[in-house]
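User: quick one, sequence for these tokens?
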């Protein structure tokens, strides 16, 4: 048995001090057109939210620093409707001091089966895009102008009662088609900020290029879900764990927060596959 080499990353890392333009972080989190980055935070014991049922109680300034840079580099933030409701999303803006990084405004795209758009977003000056399926189309179109509603129903029905039929019955969305529609609007750098159900579906569809995970130095006990949640594969189905390759790891020494950037597509060494099993 050949034992693997281990790289000691954290003590050997260089210091990345706060900087108005965040040039170091901008380089570390370069966002290529066509790439979908997901950004999530989890506690040491795997919780995706704190006692108040939102992630604000488990994040901190280190997470905020990276969060801002990621928003500055994206064309569009994609979130599940559950997250928009829980975290009370409003119209997004480019983070202060980083607006020069992209000429266009930061767009928001909400993914929903129900088509139920939170009132805060309907009232915004800059309206969100809504990506929905057959079940949510009418409600979304009643709330928003037609050019803000992307209707992309899952179309896999073959009547055998399998997973694809279940997706159609739930009013599911063809997420790949939704992302293609955003790309056609010029929104090609996609930042998904969750939540756990949407992330699970994007991973299962093999649509996530990289997963940034902040490990919050806290424990919240049983209750909160993991950063991926849902029904998983149909009973009897099994999938091998998918690979991920570490691009970098940042450590905030005062609190102990860890910020990792994981690449999910096959790398040069073929070690990561990006084909999550859901
Ligand atoms: N730790 C973190 O980084 C993080 C990040 C984000 C959120 N959160 C937390 O996660 C919690 C919310 O969890 P959640 O799993 O319910 O969030 P979620 O995935 O954002 O919301 C689920 C809802 O989003 C819509 N949705 C998700 N996947 C869909 C798909 N494939 N097709 C169509 N619609 C889809 C549906 O909306 P409809 O109901 O409208 O059909 C669904 O009910 C909150 O407590 C929030 O604070 C944590």
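Assistant:
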């Amino acid at each position: 048995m050949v034992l693997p080499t281990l790289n000691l990353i954290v003590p050997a890392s260089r210091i990345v001090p706060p900087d108005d333009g965040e040039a170091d972080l901008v380089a570390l989190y370069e966002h290529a057109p066509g790439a979908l980055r997901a950004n999530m935070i989890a506690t040491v014991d795997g919780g995706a939210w704190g006692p108040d049922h939102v992630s604000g109680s488990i994040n901190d300034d280190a997470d905020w620093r990276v969060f801002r840079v990621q928003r500055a580099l994206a064309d569009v933030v994609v979130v599940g409707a559950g997250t928009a409701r829980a975290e009370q999303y409003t119209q997004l803006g480019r983070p202060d001091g980083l607006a020069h990084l992209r000429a266009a405004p930061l767009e928001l795209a909400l993914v929903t089966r129900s088509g139920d758009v939170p009132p805060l977003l309907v009232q915004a000056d800059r309206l969100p895009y809504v990506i929905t399926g057959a079940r949510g189309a009418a409600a979304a179109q009643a709330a928003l102008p037609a050019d803000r509603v992307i209707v992309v129903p899952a179309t896999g029905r073959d009547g055998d009662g399998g997973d694809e039929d279940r997706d159609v019955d739930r009013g599911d969305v063809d997420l790949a088609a939704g992302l293609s529609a955003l790309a056609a609007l010029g929104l090609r750098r996609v930042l998904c900020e969750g939540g756990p159900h949407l992330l699970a579906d994007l991973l299962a569809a093999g649509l996530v290029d990289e997963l940034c995970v902040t490990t919050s130095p806290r424990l919240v006990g049983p209750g909160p879900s993991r950063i991926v949640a849902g029904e998983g594969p149909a009973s009897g189905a099994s999938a091998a764990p998918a690979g991920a390759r570490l691009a970098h790891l940042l450590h905030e020494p005062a609190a102990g927060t860890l910020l990792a950037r994981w690449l999910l597509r096959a790398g040069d060494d073929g070690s990561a596959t990006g084909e999550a099993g859901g």
